[in-house]
Design goal:
592 residues; 7-stranded mixed sheet; globular; 5-stranded mixed sheet; 13% strand
Length: 592
């Protein structure tokens, strides 16, 4: 039960305050304000991120100003934001900046200083103006830019425009699942499910498709279009409706008769390529398959008298001589050949995972202490959790040098001893996410050899594909490196993959026994699902990692598992499905 004084505050959490302070720092830099003033807000945000006490408690007890790095001005602004839910200074500052300049910050390689320079020297205030200036060669002429910068800006603008209407998987699931729960509880609904690319576990989706079977649809349509979170109704008919949800996500609902549900679900799940092959297969058997059913007919029809009695998708696949194909595999990438031979694998489930081998604590840029991480992950039922904070080259993430790594080794040992004394079998593995630099790894081999888990990641790639590829292969060849982290370096909807030969890196991992991470952060989901069938064929093992920077990021493992399923991976293909004793043996193999 929270103390009474905490219940007086609006729901503005610490993370929201941190975000506002960081934005203020960016806005001040855009305006060319005193750098010390700018730094005060950025440093204040970092201090808040590392708090071990609730922010509300510190405010209520007037102790926030006692914390180093939080001066009087920050105390006043933080208090105003937490107690009122608003900050006048932030609103006024943001309103003083042309909106287009803030949008430019989302363009890859465009920080506040560069945006400010473009605004002052070329008068640019919109993305469109920036694009035109680049196309005219004006940006390349400015100090600090050049032709390559200009090309990267144009590539980033084109990339963002191409994916402007898409959303990350976790955001789609957060929006979709409460709606699905409400539909299931509606008295008129017989069956319902999510369809489309979201059901197929695509990494990003353009909209959410809901399918419902019912005898009466009017009340269902009404409930769907009037629920909380609907910003506007795009269309509403007797059996279909489209709405715009908070966050700019479009959701579509279709109501069908229950006899049509299985075929409609298969049809609207897709993919287009999969559906085309399914229809062709039906035609080859003298049948017709469409969204209304599977019919014994040589012509297109929806005649109920000709409909075969297929109540489920499994029965539709069986009628076409196929084993059931899970939605994630329906991309026409080998599922028909496997289904004909009854060789569809039993795909991994997220509950098969025992823990994650790439995670961060507050020793670098994570948010929780070692003790807090251990308690949370043990409480979730995990068997282990690796602490792989950044190495020193990632200075912006407070990366660890050799001395701090050694201190952390002792700290983790103390946490593990305490867990053992308390009778808890949970275990924190020691580790590092070591940067792959141009001249090798960021830490010495003798130090890496002391760690239980080593993730090697390339955070800063060059423009040369061959050099990037060579750096990753060299890392894989190091006997102390267990896995390559987020191999392509992509950021979904934000940054294209780095220039490299991914197949060559996969081959090197196969040759050296190095694992490849499936980074489950929904902004990464890297290695891409399209490469996992090849990696699996080469014998490369997968590690599904949450790359957690907060305890709640443990939930990313569910999203990563969906991508693993899409890559045809089974429990046996994924290292961190193994119990601790077997995992340790697997970790030792690379070094032996």
């Amino acid at each position: 039960m929270y103390p009474a004084y905490l219940c007086q505050f609006p729901r503005v959490d610490k993370d929201s305050v941190v975000g506002v302070l960081k934005e203020i720092g960016v806005f001040l830099e855009l305006k060319g304000e005193n750098p010390f003033k700018t730094r005060a807000y950025v440093n204040g945000a970092r201090v808040l991120e590392g708090l071990t006490e609730p922010l509300e408690t510190l405010i209520a007890e007037e102790r926030l100003g006692d914390i180093k790095g939080i001066g009087k001005a920050l105390v006043e602004k933080i208090t105003e934001l937490v107690e009122t839910g608003e900050l006048e200074y932030y609103d006024t500052l943001k309103a003083s900046i042309p909106p287009g300049l803030i949008e430019m910050l989302d363009v890859q390689g465009m920080g506040p200083k560069k945006v400010k320079a473009l605004h002052e020297k070329l008068g640019l205030e919109t993305i469109e103006a920036l694009e035109a200036a680049c196309e005219a060669g004006k940006v390349a002429e400015l100090d600090g830019f050049g032709k390559k910068s200009e090309e990267k800006i144009l590539e980033s603008i084109a990339f963002k425009r191409q994916h402007a209407s898409h959303h990350h998987r976790h955001k789609m699931l957060i929006a979709a699942e409460p709606i699905l729960d409400d539909l299931r509880s509606h008295p008129d609904v017989i069956r319902c499910d999510i369809a489309g690319s979201l059901r197929r576990a695509k990494e990003v989706s353009g909209d959410i498709d809901f399918l419902v079977s019912a005898k009466e649809s009017a009340d269902i349509i009404e409930a769907f279009t009037t629920r909380d979170g609907v910003l506007s109704v795009l269309a509403a008919g007797s059996t279909k409706a489209s709405v715009l949800l908070e966050g700019g996500i479009q959701a579509d609902l279709r109501v069908v008769e229950d006899l049509e549900f299985a075929s409609a679900l298969a049809y609207f799940t897709g993919s287009k390529e999969h559906n085309i092959s399914m229809r062709s297969r039906a035609i080859g058997r003298g049948l017709r398959l469409n969204e209304y059913g599977l019919f014994k007919s040589k012509e297109e029809t929806r005649d109920p008298k000709l409909r075969l009695d297929c109540k489920t998708e499994e029965e539709i696949f069986a009628a076409l001589g196929l084993a059931y194909v899970p939605p994630e595999l329906r991309e026409d990438r080998g599922e028909f050949e496997a289904a004909e031979k009854n060789e569809i694998p039993r795909l991994i489930e997220w509950t098969d995972l025992k823990g994650s081998l790439h995670n961060h604590s507050n020793w670098s840029d994570g948010h929780e202490t070692l003790e807090e991480i251990a308690a949370h992950m043990s409480g979730l039922g995990c068997a282990y959790w690796a602490i792989t904070d950044h190495s020193k080259a990632s200075f912006q993430a407070n990366g660890l040098d050799a001395a701090r790594v050694k201190k952390q080794l002792k700290a983790i040992a103390e946490v593990n001893q305490k867990l053992k004394d308390e009778g808890d079998d949970f275990y924190l593995l020691t580790g590092i996410e070591v940067d792959i630099l141009k001249n090798g790894l960021d830490l010495e081999d003798d130090l890496l050899a002391q760690l239980e888990v080593v993730v090697a990641s390339m955070h800063v790639a060059g423009s040369d594909e061959a050099d990037n590829t060579k750096r990753l292969i060299t890392a894989a060849e190091n006997p102390n490196v267990h896995m390559i982290g987020h191999l392509s370096g992509r950021l979904l909807l934000g940054r294209a993959p780095q220039k490299l030969n991914q197949q060559a890196v996969i081959d090197a991992c196969a040759a050296t026994g190095t694992w490849i991470e499936l980074n489950a952060n929904p902004h990464r989901l890297d290695l891409d699902w399209r490469h996992w069938q090849y990696a699996k064929s080469k014998g490369v093992k997968c590690v599904i990692n949450s790359d957690a920077h907060r305890n709640e990021h443990a939930g990313f493992l569910r999203i990563g598992t969906g991508i693993a399923r899409k890559g045809w991976l089974t429990k046996g293909d994924v290292v961190n499905t193994q119990p601790l004793a077997k995992l340790r043996k697997e970790l030792a193999k690379k070094r032996n």
